[in-house]
Design brief:
Layout lengths: L8 H7 L6 E14 L1 H4 L4 H19 L6 E6 L6 E7 L2 H13 L6 E14 L1 H13 L7 H17 L1 H4 L8 E9 L12 H17 L5 E6 L8 E7 L3 H11 L2 H6 E3 L3 E6 L4 H5 L11
Length: 292
């Protein structure tokens, strides 16, 4: 129609806000602890049994919590001895899980070394670009009432479609690798100044690497912007820890990691079921489960 206004792609791109839409799921807390073996060793066997019995009872319930689970890992290296990972529906529930652990008599022998607070997040780069461009072509003013209403509907649909990924069962794999990360800012490279289309392209290529390892590793990405010192946390779960090295090494050659990624400390742990806590505190690592 002659009355239709033609919008050049460059004009549409200029009107696209830079921030991608996201959907969020479980609130997540990692607690890294050092175990005070010097204080534990002198205890009588009966005292140890009573303390472990109380902790096992609570941790077993937290492992099986249907509204977000917890897991215990024995850490390798000097950064700590134990790591608790908690998935919960809300931050209040996350704080309650933290308080429940703190109330245990076992906590008298735990010394926090660090922690990490975040929320499971999925970035909607492709949907964002499509939605923003469609709204711009219709002449809808960004952040107007109509804009906000349609964006809210899009996010709600995406969250429902992605619910299994946003509220996952905590994987039962034997090994975990956790690390925080940022996108580079400063010097001559700044992730946040790239056009959203370019960030979407790079993230799409980055995601293809992870998908090639999907059968061997479970990856859960969490956002910590506004919650902790880094911008994202990454949890990798696998039954073969060498997969972590292969996956992360390959990703280092990908553009989004090679140019823009900054990594924090890595934490490598071995899964310890609550019922195996007695064995762990005897200095015996639980055997690998026959299940994957």
């Amino acid at each position: 129609m002659s009355s239709t206004r033609t919008i050049r792609p460059q004009a549409v791109a200029a009107e696209v806000p830079p921030v991608p839409l996201t959907v969020e799921g479980y609130s997540v807390l990692h607690q890294m602890m050092r175990f005070r073996w010097d204080a534990w060793r002198p205890l009588r066997a009966a005292q140890k049994s009573e303390i472990v019995r109380e902790a096992t009872s609570l941790l077993s319930k937290m492992e099986q919590n249907s509204a977000g689970q917890s897991a215990l890992f024995s850490l390798l290296g000097h950064k700590g001895d134990l790591m608790f990972v908690h998935f919960r529906q809300a931050f209040d529930e996350l704080n309650q899980a933290e308080l429940n652990v703190a109330r245990l008599r076992l906590s008298d022998y735990l010394e926090p070394t660090t922690s990490y607070v975040s929320v499971i997040e999925l970035g909607l780069y492709e949907s964002t670009i499509k939605a923003y461009s469609a709204l711009a072509e219709r002449g809808v003013e960004p952040h107007s009432e109509e804009w906000n209403r349609e964006i809210k509907e899009i996010v709600a649909r995406q969250k429902e479609a992605m619910r299994p990924r946003l509220f996952p069962e905590l994987p039962k794999s034997r090994y975990i690798s956790f690390y925080p990360m940022d996108r580079r800012r400063g010097e001559d490279k700044n992730w946040y100044t790239l056009p959203i289309e370019e960030r979407a392209r790079q993230m799409g290529e980055h995601g293809m690497i992870g998908r090639r390892y999907a059968g061997d590793v479970k990856q859960i990405i969490t956002s910590s912007i506004g919650f902790d010192d880094w911008e994202w946390g990454v949890d990798l779960f696998a039954d073969d820890p060498l997969i972590f090295k292969k996956l992360i090494y390959e990703m280092r050659f990908d553009e989004v990691s090679a140019v823009y990624a900054l990594f924090g400390h890595f934490y490598l742990g071995v899964r310890c079921q609550a019922l195996e806590l007695t064995k762990l505190l005897r200095g015996e690592l639980p055997k690998a489960s026959s299940k994957g």
